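Duplicate of #3305? Posting structure anyway:
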């Protein structure tokens, strides 16, 4: 398959107010194929979100580069849709106007906007909520709007940074199922950062495991579980074996991170 996104030897350094240098990412190389769902997991502070921000164009790498469809990413662009953990909706706009925001910036016709918004409202299960404001929605509903808004612009790749991290357990499971269904239907390319190992395996075609800081790619795990996937797959021997492998790998990195911070594991 064609490589949609290529992350090539990316390093990111930050300088603290005390003039101390922190290496967040070091020589990270990875790729996402067209229509592939790639998830990234790793211990806290390993640079997962920093890497996603670099792909989004919100941060510049200290060295290395990121290519989308062969073009180097240097700034944010409409070819990337971004969904964060926090509910980044415009509170003064209705659900419909939030989803239509990017389309209006692109001067899309009113007729086409109405068709696209209606389509995605139905897809995310919010038909009839078009005139509501964000303050009237639950957390799960707000994230449905955020996902619909990102997808409505038909980006080349969808970037998600812990999008379900603030949701309760049951809502999170429902949102995972919804997102997986949407991706299976649309064949959109996805790069998804999460702390949740079950989530990473259930959603992903490929799971990248990162090392403790400085973040590097420690391991690439292929999830050879066929689509469509149901939640029952989480209890299958194949899934549990993959989970065991990922948990072991991340635990090794967590122990390293604790040792770096506190001088050892009690």
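Output from current build:
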């Amino acid at each position: 398959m064609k490589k949609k996104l290529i992350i090539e030897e990316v390093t990111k350094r930050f300088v603290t107010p005390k003039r101390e240098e922190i290496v967040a990412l070091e020589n990270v190389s990875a790729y996402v194929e067209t229509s592939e769902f790639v998830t990234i997991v790793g211990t806290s502070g390993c640079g997962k979100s920093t890497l996603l921000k670099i792909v989004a164009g919100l941060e510049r790498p200290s060295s290395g580069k990121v290519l989308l469809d062969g073009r180097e990413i240097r700034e944010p662009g409409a070819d990337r849709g971004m969904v964060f953990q926090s509910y980044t909706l415009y509170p003064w706009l209705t659900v419909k106007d939030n989803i239509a925001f990017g389309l209006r910036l692109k001067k899309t016709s009113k007729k086409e906007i109405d068709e696209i918004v209606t389509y995605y409202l139905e897809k995310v299960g919010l038909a009839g909520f078009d005139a509501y404001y964000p303050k009237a929605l639950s957390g799960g509903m707000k994230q449905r709007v955020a996902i619909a808004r990102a997808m409505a612009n038909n980006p080349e790749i969808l970037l998600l940074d812990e999008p379900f991290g603030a949701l309760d357990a049951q809502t999170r499971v429902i949102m995972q199922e919804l997102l997986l269904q949407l991706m299976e239907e649309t064949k959109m390319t996805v790069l998804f950062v999460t702390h949740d190992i079950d989530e990473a395996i259930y959603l992903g075609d490929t799971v990248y495991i990162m090392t403790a800081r400085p973040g590097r790619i420690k391991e690439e795990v292929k999830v050879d579980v066929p689509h469509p996937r149901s939640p029952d797959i989480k209890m299958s021997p194949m899934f549990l074996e993959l989970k065991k492998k990922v948990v072991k790998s991340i635990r090794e990195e967590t122990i390293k991170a604790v040792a770096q911070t506190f001088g050892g594991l009690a």
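Confirmed duplicate; merging threads. Residues 115 and 121 are 10 Å apart (CA to CA). The chain is about 35% helix and 25% strand.
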